[in-house]
Amino acid sequence: MAESISLAEQGALAKDFLVGLLGVMGIDAEVTVREIDEDTVELAVDADPPTELGILVGPRGTTLQALQEVTRTVVQAKSEGRTDRILVDVARYRERRVAALGRFARQVADEVAESGEERALEPMSPADRKAVHDSLVDDGRVTTRSEGEEPRRFVVIAPA
């Protein structure tokens, strides 16, 4: 098996790709690289003001998800071995999305705890489902579970 390139090298390759892509698109933004843990690197794209970055996020983050996949593919193509987890965030979208999903999940948990009836949420991406599960993991009043098949997999919030 071929030797993997380091996480720092993967971050640098991903950054070079994103900087080049932004340049071709005429978007003036800064790309920073941060190692989250030993297997994960995050590339944050920010601009001041961030208004022109919306095109990189797209509706409900779909363009951002595609941008992340393309970035991973570029890095994988330049590595003979295994690559680590590469995350891309634009204008702190993911952070804001996780916070909003947490607020929503807690509101639904309140309703479920009060009514005693479980509630199925709309289908979500794996990352969004994880955010919902994580936001309610310590709420002793409810439990969460995922049901369905991709791409229509969803979270059910039920009384504990």
Descriptive report:
- The protein is of the alpha+beta class and 160 residues long.
- It has two domains: 7-91, K homology (KH) domain (GMP Synthetase, Chain A, domain 3, 2-Layer Sandwich), CATH 3.30.300.20; 96-159, R3H-like domain (Ribosomal Protein S8, Chain: A, domain 1, 2-Layer Sandwich), CATH 3.30.1370.
- It has five helices and six strands.
- A three-stranded mixed beta sheet has the order 1-2-3, with helices on both faces. It has a three-stranded antiparallel beta sheet with strand order 4-6-5.
- Strand 5 and strand 6 form a beta hairpin.
Short recap of the structure:
The protein has 160 residues and is α+β, with helices and mostly antiparallel strands. Helices cover 46% and strands 22% of the residues.
